From TrEMBL:
Pfam families listed in its UniProt record: Cys_rich_FGFR
Native source organism of the sequence: Amphiprion ocellaris
Matching PANTHER family: GOLGI APPARATUS PROTEIN 1, SELECTIN LIGAND RELATED
Protein name per UniProt: Golgi apparatus protein 1
Segments of skewed composition (Low complexity): 52-61
Region (Disordered): 31-70
């Protein structure tokens, strides 16, 4: 300190309180008689100026003056002003009079002669060599305590300079009072500051800051000179190229003056006079000293009652503080030791270097706090005040004023109070390209946010604090006030009922910039700083690296957070994130999912695509969904980042905070177990899909889950569990296939082929086959999840099923029911879908949903592929659910339209179909139904008893089923629909079909007009002759008789029917009346059928004979006829013409 005090530089600074020959500069001659030093503790008046003082001063002084005991109050020049302006008790003390006249109100003029007298008095007082000796006597103990001052050389003015510099450490009352009084005298006029005039003379004249001549201006105006220089200094920092740059030595002098006036606002004469009334209004009870009045006024700067003049003076003072923190007495004092401890002021030889900037001090100390190093509470409190100050008034940051001037003038003018301008710039900064701020302005904003660090304490951001106060009181009241978790809590309640619009905007504006530098989230930094240094090679809190910029650190962290063994080589423990860090990374990802602008990389790469495809998608979460919907249309850079984010969501769907929030009821009811897991591997989304149709599911959740399912179709990597289970299989069996639906088809085809060919070993791994089944089941729920089906059927959907919902397979069911009206392409796809579903009923979503309980009741032991067969067998059980029964009937109707939709029949009749029905197959197309023609063909062959046993069994089942429900016979329904409506409308309308429609058609056979229908009814009659089970009405009527008279007869091939016919003809057998009546009716019908439809060939004739009640008689007559013909031929052959022997012997 001694060396520093002795340096010539000190002569430029405000700490030197001597004029140093200043009189010659002013054109004045120093008084020959020294001023009389005051005697402590009561300060005595000094000797009067000498006779060779300036004429004006001499004229103003009363003559003759006493050599000692001279008083200002006795001088004629000041007597009137003194009487008018100063209390009487001050008249006996020259210093009190001086202070009174100096601090008078600006509008109170004093006579020019008095003004000059005061000037000469202060001039003589400050140049008197006895001044130091008085200081030595008054401050004796203080000088001994302050080592730097005790070592100063005496007689050169350095001692008083040192005492002024250390006046904050002076505890001795008299010394403190003395130094304070002397300082206030010198501060009253810039010309009294030793060296200041020499260094700033040119700048004062150049900037027109005032006059340097005594008498030209009132002493009050001399405070304006320093104020003018200060304003020019801060204005220079806010300009790109200073038009009139202030010389460096004058800049240092200005800042030193500001620094030494930092403890008592009286010493800043311009601010004192500007804010005197405001001080009384706002800070009346605040004691002067230690910068307390300054701080009080700063806190009320934006009050409505604050005068504009005072506000401008305070702003200038704050701008000086932003250039040199030492201009703030309280901050410099509170943080002095911490700055030294944290090595924040490395270059003490350059006091105005960058280390003096407020932003540097804040960044350095904030880095220490974030790293857990000790920083005193007093210093942290001061830092908090000044960080809040930076956020409140953008003009305190010269970089903002310089680089954001255009944006402020265009969009944010008139919003300078309470941080509104800054938030306005932040709002523009996070906007689209059309309103985006310049990159240099953006960088300045980012730097300011880092300096203020509002992420550590939301109260720093006054605009945010005021906007979100009500939300914090309701949603975040459990968190300690000022805790960094408040911001996280607010983000968790974004877009909820508790959030208010103004808070939402302010929060997103701030989070936009916090998200671009991972260090600005204090919780993330605290938990992850070790991981970031180890894995991402980061530096200190306030240091950046070109190789790893702040925005790239978080990307590095989340890549390591979601690395697994399956994604390549085994991950070493030292390459994994700590558990605490991973939790924080997940928290940030959840927050970023709320708004694409919170993801810097996503916004940067997708700015063009957002404008092109998603300009109208402005609601929460819509922009990301829009990008996912247009994934194929995005530019490659955007597509990559959206794809990576979607892949990440598939692993941890909780990242999508909006979806999780919407699905909270379902998660609590059905998925709370998987939701509570620390690590989600796709289980939660799978659970939501499985419970998509539960009563707790709301529209928002259902739409969100379905949307994610649709996005997953675009790339198999978007289904985490599927990707992890099948990645190797895809690379081996389905290379170069990316779309999930194509991958599923490829793998499913491979599995099906291996199964059909009875391969020794399945090519698709077991774990992949299990997950493949899950994916197939999920896809069956919504037609949109199967693009190959959805795309050809879009027009049919809008035409035939406009009001049907997509979920729950309702749309697919609608298309199935309207199958005959579908376009050709859609019809083909639906047919293929039904073919797959019939061979694998688990993929029939509607069947499995409607019959879920019945499957548990009847088919728990059945193979998955035989579920429909099991349900059909139990269809008529009394325990069968009516809705399930109705669904089974629908599937039976579908199966009977084409043998290919009945895998059991197809397998049993694989040899019979080409043998007997090739002509039908030749006419058929590959992807359209045969409308039951093949089954009708097989029915006829069944009646002819020509089918193989397996095929015969299956056809018998079909005949029995269709005999009970006419709808199961597509040929009958197609040819007889009009006749049924005309003749059997009542029977057809019955809810329960038990063969009444078929019986109605048989009874009304003679009334049927359409030949096609008549033929079908005749075929029914023909089929019933082959097996009584095919005729349910007859079978029911004759059940007891079959049991009594034909129990030993094996069913099939018409044997039991023949038994009943014989019993009918046998007069010894008494049949049940109903059975007898029904049998007689059948005989009549068969007789009519024989007349109407005679045998078309020998085979038909043989069948008619064999099934005739008079079969034995007919066969006897045929045999008798053959014998008679043989005998006639044998006996009558000789009756022909005789031949002579000669002719025979030739």
């Amino acid at each position: 300190m001694a060396a520093y005090s002795r340096s010539p530089l000190l002569l430029l600074l405000f700490s030197s309180v001597f004029l140093c020959g200043f009189g010659s500069v002013l054109g004045l001659k120093a008084a020959s008689g020294p001023a009389e030093p005051p005697n402590p503790p009561v300060l005595r008046p000094a000797d009067p100026p000498a006779k060779d003082a300036p004429a004006a001063a001499a004229a103003g002084a009363s003559q003759p003056r006493r050599a000692t005991g001279w008083k200002l109050s006795e001088e004629e020049a000041c007597r009137e002003d003194l009487t008018r302006l100063c209390p009487k008790h001050t008249w006996t003390n020259n210093l009190a009079v001086l202070e009174c006249l100096q601090d008078r109100r600006e509008e109170s003029e004093i006579a020019p002669d008095c003004n000059h007298l005061l000037w000469n008095y202060k001039l003589n007082l400050t140049t008197d060599p006895k001044f130091e000796s008085v200081a030595t006597e008054v401050c004796k103990s203080t000088i001994a305590e302050i080592k730097e001052c005790n070592e100063e050389e005496r007689g050169r003015g350095y001692l008083v300079s040192c005492l002024v510099d250390h006046r904050g450490n002076i505890s001795e009352y008299q010394c403190n009072q003395y130094i304070t009084k002397m300082t206030s005298i010198i501060f009253s006029d810039f010309r009294l500051i030793c060296g200041f005039m020499d260094k700033c003379k040119d700048d004062i004249n150049t900037l027109h800051c005032g006059s340097i001549n005594v008498g030209h201006k009132d002493v009050h105006s001399q405070g304006e000179v320093i104020a003018c220089l200060e304003k020019a200094l801060v204005r220079e920092a806010e300009q790109q190229d200073g038009v009139r740059p202030i010389k460096e030595e004058c800049q240092k002098a200005i800042l030193r003056v500001a620094e030494l006036s930092s403890d008592d606002f009286h010493l800043d004469r311009h601010l004192y006079f500007s804010c005197r009334d405001d001080r009384e209004r706002f800070c009346q009870n605040t004691q002067a000293g230690e910068g307390k009045v300054y701080k009080c006024l700063f806190n009320h700067k934006f009050e409505e009652a604050m005068s504009e003049k005072c506000r401008d003076a305070l702003t200038t003072r704050q701008k000086l503080i932003s250039q040199d923190y030492r201009v703030s007495y309280s901050l410099a004092k509170a943080c002095k030791l911490d700055l030294r401890k944290q090595r924040c002021s490395l270059d003490t030889n350059l006091p105005r270097a960058r280390e003096a900037r407020l932003s540097y001090l804040l960044l350095c100390l904030e880095a220490a706090v974030h790293r857990g190093r000790p920083v005193s509470g007093e210093c942290q409190g001061e830092m908090l005040d000044y960080r809040r100050m930076l956020m409140e008034d953008f003009s305190l940051s010269p970089e903002i004023v310089l680089h954001c001037r255009t944006e402020i003038e265009a969009h944010c003018s008139g919003l300078h109070r309470k941080g509104r301008t800054l938030h306005c710039l932040m709002r523009i900064g996070r906007g689209d390209r059309s309103t985006a701020v310049d990159s240099v302005c953006q960088s300045a904003l980012q730097t300011l946010i880092q300096s203020a660090d509002p992420g550590a304490d939301y109260r720093i951001d006054r605009a945010l604090n005021e906007a979100c106060e009500s939300v914090i009181q309701t949603a975040c009241k459990h968190i300690r006030n000022g805790d960094p978790m408040i911001l996280s809590c607010l983000m968790e309640h974004l877009y909820t009922e508790k959030m208010v619009e103004d808070c939402e905007h302010r929060l997103l504006e701030l989070q936009y910039f916090i998200s671009r530098d991972w260090k600005l989230d204090p919780i993330l930094f605290k938990k992850c700083q070790g991981d970031a240094a180890r894995l991402c090679h980061t530096h200190g809190w306030n240091e950046t690296s070109e190789l790893m910029p702040p925005g790239a650190v978080f990307s590095c962290l989340y890549r390591h957070a979601y690395r697994t063994e399956e994604q390549g080589r085994r991950v070493k423990p030292d390459e994994q994130l700590s558990r605490d860090c991973k939790v924080e990374v997940q928290r940030i990802l959840h927050q970023r999912a709320l708004d694409v602008k919170l993801d810097p990389e996503l916004q940067r790469r997708c700015m063009t695509d957002l404008g092109k495809w998603c300009s109208e998608k402005t609601d929460a979460g819509q922009e990301l969904e829009c990008l996912q919907d247009h994934l194929e249309d995005l530019v490659s850079a955007c597509r990559d980042v959206v794809g990576n984010l979607t892949e990440l969501e598939s692993e941890d769907i909780q990242i999508d905070a909006l979806l999780i929030r919407a699905c909270e009821p379902v998660i609590q009811a059905h998925c709370h177990d998987v939701a509570d897991n620390q690590i989600d591997t796709g289980d939660l989304m799978e659970c939501l899909v499985q419970n998509k149709h539960q009563k707790e599911m709301n529209d928002k959740c259902a739409v969100g889950v379905t949307h994610f399912q649709l996005i997953q179709m675009k790339d198999f990597r978007f289904s985490y569990k599927f990707k992890m289970a099948c990645k190797e299989d895809v690379l081996r069996l389905c290379p170069n296939i990316k779309k999930k639906v194509d991958v599923v088809i490829c793998l499913s085809t491979t599995v099906r082929n291996d199964t059909l060919q009875d391969a020794r070993e399945q090519r698709v791994s077991l774990k992949c086959r299990k997950q493949l089944r899950v994916e197939e089941l999920e896809m069956s729920e919504d037609i949109r999840l199967e693009p190959e089906l959805y795309d050809p059927c879009k027009s049919d959907i809008s035409r035939l099923c406009p009001n049907v919902a997509f979920g729950n397979a309702q749309m697919i069911e609608c298309l199935k029911e309207q199958k005959k009206q579908l376009s050709q392409r859609c019809h083909q796809r639906i047919f293929r879908l039904q073919e797959v579903e019939m061979s694998d009923p688990e993929l029939d979503y509607q069947l499995m949903r409607v019959c879920k309980q019945m499957i548990k009741r009847f088919c728990t032991d059945a193979d998955a592929r035989n579920v429909l067969q099991c349900l059909k067998q139990n269809k008529n059980s009394e325990l069968m659910d009516p809705k399930c029964k109705q669904m089974i009937t629908k599937r039976q109707i579908t199966q009977n339209t084409d043998y290919r939709l009945n895998p059991v029949l197809r397998k049993a009749c694989r040899a019979d179909i080409p043998k007997f029905c090739q002509s039908v197959l030749n006419k058929a197309s590959e992807d359209s139904e045969l409308e039951g023609q093949v089954i009708a063909c097989l029915k006829l062959k069944y009646a002819d008893q020509r089918l193989s046993p397996d095929c015969e069994d299956q056809i018998r089942v079909i005949l029995q089923e269709s005999a009970l429900d006419y709808r199961l016979d597509p040929q009958l329904q197609m040819h007889c629909s009009d006749e049924i409506s005309r003749l059997c409308a009542e029977e057809a309308a019955a809810q329960e079909q038990t063969g009444q429609v078929e019986e109605c058609l048989k009874v009304n056979l003679l009334k049927i007009k359409q030949e096609g229908c008549k033929k079908e009814v005749l075929n029914m009659l023909k089929e019933s002759k082959a097996d009584i089970f095919v005729d349910p009405v007859l079978h029911t009527a004759c059940a007891l008789d079959l049991k009594h008279h034909c129990a030993a007869i094996t069913p099939g091939r018409g044997r039991q029917m023949s038994c009943l016919m014989e019993a009918l003809q046998d007069k010894r057998v008494r049949l049940q009346p109903e059975c007898k009546k029904r049998l007689q009716d059948r005989i009549d019908m068969w007789s009519y059928a024989a007349k109407v439809a005679p045998a078309e060939g020998f085979s038909d004739l043989a069948v008619q004979v064999m099934t005739s009640p008079s079969k034995n008689y007919i066969l006897f007559m045929i045999a008798l006829s053959v014998c008679v013909l043989f005998l006639v031929g044998l006996l009558c052959g000789r009756i022909t013409k005789r031949v002579t022997r000669e002719l025979k012997d030739r």
